[in-house]
Amino acid sequence: MIGKVRRGGRVAGLLRYLYGPGRANEHVNPHLVAGWREPDELELPLRAGGKRDFTRLTTLLRQPCAAIGEAERVWHCIVRAAPQDRDLTDAEWAYVAREVMHRTGLAPYGQEAEAVRWVAVHHGDNHIHIVATIARQDGGKARTSNDFYRLREVCRAVEAELGLRRTAPGDRTAAKRPTRAEREQAGRRGWSQIPRETLRRHVAAAAAATLSTEDLIARLAQVGVRVRLRRRDDGEVVGYAVALDHHRTAAGALVWYGGGALAADLTWPKLRARWRRTPQDELREKVAAAARAALGEQDFFRRLAEQGVLVRLRHSQTNPGQVTGYAVSLPGMTRTPGRDRWGSGEPIWYAGGRLAGWLTLPRLRRRWRTGGEDWARAEREALYGEAAQAASAAAARIRQDPASAADAAWAAADSLRVAAAALGNPVLAKAADEYERAARTPYGRIPAPSPEGIRLRSAVRLLALSGTMSRDTTLAGVVVIGALTSLVAAVADLRRAQQRAAQEAAARQAANRLLTQVTVSATPPAHLHPVRLPQDPPGQSESMVREPRHGW
């Protein structure tokens, strides 16, 4: 059983619609099943011509608003049974309506003469409409805060009592669904996708691969999404909205959607939470971006300086004028003498090879000299390996310590999005859509950061730098998919243990799709447990794997 709440300001118009034929003559035998008084006292009388007289009921519903000098405000609730459920009787629908009004606090039991006035109309198709005016009869103001979530609780309780099909609790993990008007508009105009859903996919994919407001705007612009930022008086960004050029109002204005109107984890605070990273991750990402964009050695070091990266060159001992390597750091990335922690003191330097094997100066020079095909292949394999290791470490954390696994489960959604784009794989893209709900923390909370979650996001952001490889089916690409399959399966098990049925179903569906992709790939992994790549230290758990140290 599902419920929906709407608000309006014309009770007479709503009643006429409910008692009318409907938009497609779907309304059959409309009648009252419940109300703040007995239905027989409130049912609409027939006029001489056979039409219903709405005057008395409309006046009675409006009276509490007029008594306290409030404008007419209407609370409209639709409660519908599942198509698989039996047809409920009028008595059962009356019970459902009274439970809704009681548990939402609009008309508690025993307060029929003091609470709001309301009626419930049944006109076929196994659902009812509850119409109430938001003003109490005792002169107080009715409160409707969190009414949608109270309604979800009512539906769940009624399902159990009446033996109906069970639905998921309202944990605020589902994405915002398109409205009926949006669906009908897309159908009329022949759009293949509803704008709200298109925007959600674009924003989720861009947020997974970016680290700043500017980068987010640039990535969204590449796919035709406009962005409007909301700033405080001091200039700090506190919100945003997105729109598509072809989605406009009748007056020609763009239709804007805030992040929260797309999904619970796409609000501005949650986008910023995605961008958490360690100083070493930030340094690696800046160096990798400069290496990919540079046309030569001098251009590479110039781009590093423009990003605020400190560079120290290593010169040959036999030929002091020859540069043989480099090391990088960031302002503030220092350690106190004698202590291995951040603080004031000498900068902490990372050689290029320590950040990634394909970032050593000899390999970069070979790329600039030969055009970079071999370098790009080595880079992709290294990035795939890092992503697979990070996914395996996240899966291990989820299985070993479920209490602290929320961030790793959330980061898995970003990894699927980026991997789908990097591999050009539509199966992964579909799995990412299916998995979205399983990743979210209930009630819109931001999970506490974890090393595994931060590492996984850093790895997939580097993977995003490598671009699209047109459905890569090499061993490295298959290993990434296998590791992601194991990660999503671990999340499905976690949600089952947490008794979150809807999230478990979302993760299980995505895991099955990924498993199918692994099965049909050229060289599927031997198992779906966390993948250990050759460079992992023997006997060391995936969650404790450290990056190998390389020379300059």
From TrEMBL:
Domain MobA/VirD2-like nuclease: from-to ranges: 71-164
Q: Where are the transmembrane segments?
A: 475-494
Keyword Transmembrane applies: yes
- From which residue to which does any coiled coil extend? none
Name the UniProt key words of this record, in alphabetical order.
Membrane, Transmembrane, Transmembrane helix
Concerning InterPro entries, the annotation shows: Endonuclease_MobA/VirD2
Q: Where is this region: Disordered?
A: 166-190, 523-552
Name of the protein this chain belongs to: Relaxase/Mobilisation nuclease domain-containing protein
